[in-house]
Amino acid sequence: MTKLVQIFSSRRTWAWPYVLFMALFVVLPLILVGYYALTDIGGHFTLRNFAKFFTHSEAIQTFLYSLMIAVFNTIICLLIGYPAAYIMAQEDFKTPKVMAMLFILPMWINFLLRTVATVELFNMCGLPLGEGALLFGLCYDYLPFMIYPIYNTLQKMDNSLVEAAQDLGANRWQSFWKVIVPLSMPGVYSGIVMVFMPTVSTFAIAELLTHNNIKLFGSLIQDYITTTDLLNYGAVLSLVLLIIIGLTSFFGDHDSEGEGGLV
Amino acid sequence: MKRLKLIALVVLGFLGILVSPLSAQSNLTYELKVGTTGDNTLLQEFPENYAGEKVNIKVQCTAYNVQRADSLDFVFANEGTEALRSWGDSVYNYSDESGIKWTVWRSRKEIKNRTKRVLAGNAYATFEQYLHEELDVRRNHGWIWWVFAGVIFVAVVIYGVVLIIRRSKEKNLSAVEQEILRRKRLGMRRHYGSQLYLWVLLLVLYAPIALIAVFSFTKSKILGNWTGFSMDLYVNLFSGRADAGLNSAIWYTVVIALVAALCSTILGTLAAIGIYNMRSRHRKMVTFLNSVPMINPDIITGISLFLLFVALGMSQGLATVCIAHVVFCTPYVVLSVLPRLSRMNPNTYEAALDLGATPAQALRMVMLPELWPGMLSGFILALTLSVDDFGVTFFTKGSGGLETLSTFIYSDARKGGLTPELRPLFTIILLVMLVALIIINIRNTKQQND
What we know:
The complex is a heterodimer.
Chain A lengths: L1 H8 L6 H22 L10 H8 L1 H33 L6 H9 L6 H14 L6 H26 L2 H9 L4 H12 L1 H16 L4 H6 L6 H9 L5 H21 L12
Helix pairs in contact in A: 2-13, 3-13, 4-7, 4-10, 7-10, 8-9, 10-13, 12-13
Chain B lengths: L1 H18 L9 E6 L11 H5 L3 E10 L2 E13 L10 E7 L5 E6 L1 H7 L12 H9 L7 H28 L4 H40 L17 H8 L4 H33 L3 H16 L2 H15 L5 H26 L3 H8 L4 H30 L2 H6 L8 H11 L6 H28 L1
Antiparallel strand pairs in B: 1-2, 2-3, 3-5, 4-5
Helix pairs in contact in B: 8-11, 8-13, 9-11, 11-13, 12-13
């Protein structure tokens, strides 16, 4: 009895419920994805699902297309977001906090509603829905994820380094490319990861933005996983996505000392 | 202050541009032809002749310089006609001049293909209005581009004139003075150029949201059709006269968010205390575990939990959604409590135990007051994450008709239209967020000044 009391008064054990909870609802489900991918409907081991993926041209094409869209979106977000973050981090910029909040505020409006409103905006302006609208909508949804980490690193950067570079004879352009950009790379990395990962796994909004004309990988997974007979094949597709996510977060793991991040 | 006024002016101008030309909207012309006869038969005449038969109507519509032509299949049925299932859905009711009540039926297959929401019952005053929504006729706002082009053109012209005037004035200055002026101006141009960039970006970011806000003040069912100023949608929202699905979605969202945030705050705080006191090897492992749901995109979290519930044979509903939300909320609570712990003196808890407090007392009276701010921010974060979530909810809500706001909007949008009351709802949410932002900002500047 005293031993039991001792166990509970040791604060180390207070994390046990959480660890148990995580094991049951995070680790086990991820293992289950693998299990379902390797079995058929009857629960027997099979590799047929994987074989189906490699011969299923629609899935492969959608997958590559989604990757391409995600890469494009990340590049666009970087090209638009970096200057914005850079401007906000300048010393003579008076209200950086307000501006940063203004960029984040739209995220409090439900992203589906924003997407629908974007569609309506395109309709109003007489612009066609399609790839352009898709890229606009994705960029619109994920731009804050790019701006915020870059802004954070730029803001924490020691400005005397830039001054030193200028004292040593670098012009604005040189000091930007040789000092500021390398120093802001951690923020850029985490920005890229934070935009790329949700974009590659996005579902639901692509159909809205393209009038059901373009299907992304996420929607494909959704279609298969919600169909009872094809659940196992859906698990294979999820596994493919999981691998991409794992690779991205592995290569993008430059987030030392909490450089970026929205939280 | 000057800048604030300028911003206000720009915002007002932007809203004005959106609203003003929309007020005149009613010059629609329809030519209804009964396909079977080919005559220009008027609408009031043909139901009597074709009651219970499938009628194909060729609709031509010219509105706002947009030509739309379509042919639609209808069945007109009066009280004497026996309704058949094969007709499809009844989409519109009206009474003709002689007081006979008519129901208009529409092929269900066609409605599905169109993915356009058609409201049943007496939602439309006239048949034309019904067709108007059916055809999805809306104003072409191509003129917006001309406004943009015009504004840019005028700005360029003004800038050019200013430059010419300036040149002529500075002709008789010395070379040194001219160089000084030039450098000064270069700095200013850079400054205003970067300001302009940010504001244009914000304008684009907020344009869709402004659209929602502006059109929350009109009754029209389609977002983008202005039918005059009205507060009806707000009244509907608060008096519960909005779509029943929307009302239940709001309640479910609130309940799920509160339950999930509360559970994850308790679980996460305990976990944070535990993690903080662990040996470093274990701590690393648990923190890694903690980061997994944050890295996982919501579709993966949703699908993996969906598979778990399927494997366990759990029926999906409120409970599973709550569990799923706790899964992705708790890591954020842990992360917001941990920094408070490292700031705290680790000996106070032991001191309390030595002085005779039970662990529960020590937790309540020593730890909680210190951890409170971290727990609160974790709770708020969990609330917003839960309210905003779509992916995880979508896969764990089951098929029992449980909808949160996100999934409700999704199924609504898939049908082709938004429940109009969503517009005032999100306008209010945006306003609340804006006010909170301003309050936090004022408080921060005050603290800095003190």
